[in-house]
Specification:
alpha/beta
């Protein structure tokens, strides 16, 4: 028995920040929807979107639940989630109503990941105090959790409509520290780990594995804990082909992170890719690197994303196909639905 076959099945996801090239945002959004359709057909378990109120350049998604409602209508199997919804900038009862509607329309396929976000501009635009973002997240999460449990919220006698099925296993928190991971466990939330740990010289998986271990140690719920591991994965024919698609974008992103102090200034493309913890190139090379990844052995969900790169749409579709047909199966994943059914034959 191989190591891959001995490992329990994990769920395979992909995450899009809904970005494109050029100013045609309608096409950018249409392309992102096509990624959900393709991922559904390829057997991906979960499709995730990230909420951004400030443009990323070439797009960004301010209203994820509207987007996911449309994706629900175009897909049949794939689960639909946010990684993350910026909770302090939402009214938690209204958010719960949006979640319940999409969950109802999709046949119960919703997952919700929440977090505090990082943009002071976004907080200012919504009249919220960024200095209180952790407190606001905790307060909002308590109300959101109650609303999604169909409990009374806001005033006596009020519960959200439509009522929702059990959400206790479908709430996730994005964290950036060991205390954050312990807090998520105490709250009974699943754990979302970002593609990279910023402000550290050490490799991301060396930084994040203690966070995951702390989450598991602090977990005291009767159900099994879940850990979603987001990683920058871009397969192509070889490293040169991959770099032609992602290199320039990664370098620009590294410069922006350097300006904020999260990365050192003047990084080479190779060092920028290391700090973004990127897995790129031929699928065999990516498989070998992921087999050495320190957090993956304790993850229940592997979430592939291309951000901060914005590859061409055809290259993104091809990368999703390689992830689902070559990389993930080599790590022990198989579609929950037989391939013949996914292909419609």
């Amino acid at each position: 028995m191989t190591a891959a076959s001995a490992r329990p099945r994990f769920r395979l996801g992909f995450l899009t920040h809904v970005q494109g090239r050029g100013d045609d945002l309608r096409q950018t959004y249409a392309n992102a929807q096509e990624l959900f359709v393709a991922a559904d057909e390829l057997g991906f378990d979960v499709g995730w979107v990230a909420q951004h109120h400030v443009s990323l350049g070439g797009g960004g998604l301010s209203s994820p639940w509207t987007f996911l409602a449309h994706a629900a209508a175009r897909t049949t199997r794939i689960r639909l989630g946010t990684a993350i919804t910026i909770l302090p900038l939402e009214h938690p009862v209204r958010l719960a109503e949006d979640v319940s509607v999409v969950d109802t329309l999709s046949g119960g396929r919703v997952e919700i990941g929440v977090g505090s976000g990082a943009s002071e501009v976004e907080y200012a635009a919504f009249g919220r105090d960024a200095a209180r973002k952790r407190e606001l997240t905790s307060e909002g999460l308590a109300v959101l959790r109650a609303a999604l449990a169909n409990e009374e919220v806001g005033t006596a006698g009020f519960t959200i409509q439509p009522p929702v099925a059990d959400f206790s296993e479908r709430i996730w928190q994005g964290v950036f520290s060991r205390p954050g991971a312990e807090y998520a466990a105490a709250a009974g939330s699943n754990l979302l780990l970002n593609r990279a740990a910023y402000g550290y010289d050490e490799p991301t998986d060396e930084v994040q594995r203690p966070w995951a271990d702390a989450f598991l140690a602090a977990w005291d719920q009767p159900r099994a804990p879940r850990i979603g591991l987001s990683r920058f994965i871009f397969p192509a024919a070889d490293k040169a082909t991959a770099l032609a698609q992602i290199g320039a974008d990664v370098q620009r992103a590294a410069e922006k992170f350097g300006a904020k102090g999260a990365f050192p200034a003047g990084l080479s493309v190779e060092e920028a890719l290391r700090r973004f913890h990127a897995f790129y190139g031929h699928p065999d090379d990516i498989i070998a690197e992921l087999q050495r990844e320190l957090v993956l052995p304790v993850a229940t969900d592997l979430i592939a994303q291309f951000n901060p790169a914005v590859p061409d749409h055809d290259a993104a579709l091809h990368a999703l196909e390689l992830i689902a047909t070559e990389i993930a199966p080599a790590l022990g994943w198989q579609p929950a639905v037989p391939v013949t059914e996914l292909a419609g034959v």
